[in-house]
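User: Hello! I'm new to structural biology and keep hearing that structure can be predicted from sequence alone. Could you demonstrate with Transcriptional regulator, AraC family? Please show me the input and the output so I can see what each looks like.

Assistant: Of course. The first part below is the input, the amino acid sequence of Transcriptional regulator, AraC family. The second part is the output, the predicted structure written as tokens.
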Amino acid sequence: MVLNIREALFVYQLQDEEKIRWHSRVHAHGRDEYELHYFLQGGGSFSVGSTTYRISPGSVFLCPPLEVHTIQTIGNDHPLTYYAILFAPDEGADAELRELLTGRLPRSLYRHVGTNYRFFFEELKEKVASSSSARRNSGIHQFVSFLYMLNEGPGSFNYGDGSNQHIEKALKIMQGRVTEKLDLPTLAKRVGLNESYFIRLFRQKMQITPMKYFTRLKIEAATGYLLGTSQPLYQIAETLGFYSEFHFSKTFKQYVGVSPRGYRERYRQNIEGIDS
């Protein structure tokens, strides 16, 4: 391998106070570790070293090893949604890639690439978590290509073919309508494909059906409500478009492995243990 992707995270609408404190902490990574952030939604600032940048949708920031950096939000009215990739060159990385990271790319890099890279990063996240070495390696090489495009500048960012654009549009719709009810016929129509082809294409690209992905997004949003608010379960279920509190609890447990009530109680116990 040319590099090792150690973590690939998707942070949806950063609102919970504990998560904000964690993601906003001033920190640096290891001697060979780089971290890339790609912001899709919200506002705030990104500080790396002595430089502070304004966050806007479509911003990309690359932090070098040992460089102190932090994210500052501007309140829950503009919650941040972003991908974060932590990576390090492998021992077998070629000299050209190392020279790209240490020489050609600015030490603290900022680019604005637009918001059409949802699919790129969602696919990358799925690939590097795959049990298939072929898919993991495919994701790594995909990411290396992105790093080279960062070096070339904004004119090089034109990702994907027509089928990727359909998935990109679907992801944008789903990520923007998490608190709404959205059915497959409506989504397929918005994307401009018939339902059967849309399902096949989405599953081929994302390794999951579109509505299962949409449910996963709702569960990600639910964790924020559970940890960041005192709203009762029935209210969270209603906010996120579940049929009932029972339906919400059953679905949550399927995806997370614990009930919403248990998830909230475990979190509170962890916080009490940290504070005591």
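User: So the tokens describe the shape?

Assistant: Right, they're a compact way of writing down the 3D structure. Reading them back into a model, for example: The chain has two domains: 3-156, 162-275.
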